[in-house]
Amino acid sequence: MSYVWRESTRGALVSGYFGLVPDSHLSRLLGVNTCPSFNSSRLELERSRVWLHVRSQTSVDEVSALARRLSFRAIALTTHPYPQDQRLRSHQRGNQMNINFRAGRFVAAAALLPACSTGPATSLDDQDAISSENAIVDVAHTDVENEAIGNCWIYATATWAESMHLSATNEAFDTSQSYWTYWDWFDKISAGTSVTSKTDAQGKVVGADLQTGGGFQLAFNLVRKYGLIAEANFVPADTTSQTSAAQDVALKAINASLFNGPLATSAARTDRKLLRDELNKAFGLSPTLVATMNTVFGESAERNFSAGSTASATGTPIVNAKNFETLSPRISRSGSAYSWRTSLSSAMNGWQEASYPSDPTARRMLQIRVQKALHARAPVGITWGVDFNGFDRRAGSPTYGAFTLPTLQAAGKAGRQGGHLTVLEDYEAILASGETLEAGVTLNKSTSKDRAKLASALLPETQIKFLRIKNSWGDDYFPTEGKAGYHDIYVDYLNGPIQWCSATDPTSCPWQITPLWAFLLPPGY
User: Fold this and answer.
1) How far, in Å, CA of 406 to CA of 80, rounded?
2) Which of 130, 337, 378, 525 is close enough to 6 for a disulfide, judged by CB 3.0 to 4.6 Å?
3) For the residues of 95-161, what is the DSSP string, one character each?
4) CA Rg, the chain, in Å?
């Protein structure tokens, strides 16, 4: 499933620090008809040009007639083969015709359709990015990876950015999560935050513990300041495995340095050059890469890409977020929906977190907003609480590899817990008629039957059964059948409530919480 939609309301912002492992901070967060002749697939506003992609069977005369009806002048007619890549894997292949109409100003996508539509006008994100008989597809995603140290928020941000870049360029860019982890530790340690003490059963301090948790907004700040880099250019060994051994090794090395090594004192931790030297050694960075980072940011990272700073990545493999291309849906203030081709920097400014409300009606309205974004193929982010006793590991179970409330209740107690950030792939819904729209099943919106199903999926009476996430636990961790690396979270679990335990004493579980905290949604959704 996927599909069509738009709405202009937004939810409130939830902020905080989240990681796969328990974090004491968590306890404080309780908290369509298309034109029949042309079967147009995408109307994209780009400066003053409006691009319309149509099926190759459409004749030039038909295109010219459309141009006249729209009072536009067709200034370019070309055909080209559509690329065959991962994003288009479920599409009909073939030639596409690009028709470029020049308008005197920006034109709302919906305004183009009444001239040739026999039904209600639809707005831009109703028009799929590729014209085909089977135009409803999954969110574009890159390969699954496996976090090693509880920095799920960095992995979620990477897959979010990679998805939009894949949609924009057809390039599966492999972002280095280790690079962002490096700079996260640099910022935290130099600011004197996120370093705690490890104690034994007798309360004796036996080590230092750098907290690796974070959230989408913290990740966005890192990307704004330091940009991004391909995995192969930062820790090349990370490209050969889903799990970054370098991050695990680096965390142990930095914790040792913080406990009784060069970074053991507060004064040492504010020595930014010394701190970078320790991080360079901990991650095993090559002298060439260190020199490159010094050139861009300075030995003490006195420069960055934020406004007012002077860092320049020209001629290096480091990419300023302003130069990283993305494509995502967006709804304007006037209600027009369109495909938003922009930089990662602008995307981070536009996407917003919406908190999950307590009222059932308000919850359903937020679910509908999420459905709409998924229908437009947006990589919606989700922030939620993990209790591993709610994870079904029973071979042969119909909910194997999923989080469900009955599974947690059957365990009789809380398990290992922590906040988690991931990105959505799909959902499964039960319509008011009782029919189930199954996750992973593509619907054909060119047929009236499937259009009716899609419309029904977005009604208040529809019940969302589960959300399917692209996870960061590797593809061999109790995988969903046919979707290695993906897991289902049942809404009964997400609605809770569930018992939530103390991070310092897992046997003390005084709180009842709703495990679903927030969604990250594109502008206007």
Assistant:
1) 53
2) 337
3) EEEEEEEE-SS---GGGGSTTT-SS----GGGS-SS-SSS---PPP-----B-SSS-HHHHHHHHHH
4) 24
- pLDDT exceeds cutoff 90 at 39: no
Pairing outcome for strands 337-343 and 325-331: antiparallel
Confidence of residue 48 (pLDDT cuts 50, 70, 90): very low
Sequence-ordered alpha helix ranges (H) in 344-425 = 344-350, 360-375, 405-411
Q: Give the whole-angstrom CA distance, residue 169 versus residue 119.
A: 33
Q: What pLDDT, on the 0 to 100 scale, is given for residue 506?
A: 84
How far apart CA 437 and CA 32 sit, in angstroms, is 19
What element of type H or E holds 423?
A: strand 417-430
Q: Which residue has the higher pLDDT, 309 or 405?
A: 405
- State the pairing for strand pair 402-403/486-490: parallel
How far from 445 is each of 1, 55, 111, 330, 431, CA to CA, in Å? 10, 15, 21, 21, 17
Give pLDDT, residue 132. 25
236-245, 473-482, 486-495 — which one is most confidently predicted on average? 486-495
Reply yes or no on whether the pLDDT at 329 is more than 60. yes
Give the whole-angstrom CA distance, residue 209 versus residue 206: 10
Residue 334 buriedness (CB in 10 A; 0-12 / 13-18 / 19+): exposed
Instruction: Give pLDDT tens digits for 380-424.
Output: 999 999 999 999 999 899 999 999 999 999 999 999 999 999 999
Q: Tell me the C-alpha distance between 229 and 240, whole Å.
A: 16
Calpha distance 352→374 (Å, rounded): 15
CB 519 within 8 A of CB 370: yes
pLDDT at 85: 30
Q: How far apart are CA 28 and CA 161, in angstroms?
A: 29
What is the residue type of 251? L
- Kindly state the DSSP code that residue 414 receives in the 8-state scheme: -
CB atoms inside a 10 Å sphere around CB 312 = 14
Q: What is the pLDDT of residues 71-97, one digit of tens each?
A: 333 333 333 332 333 222 222 223 333
What are the tokens at 323?
């130069």
| Contacts for 378 with CB less than 8 Å, ≥ 6 apart | 139, 328, 329, 521, 522, 525
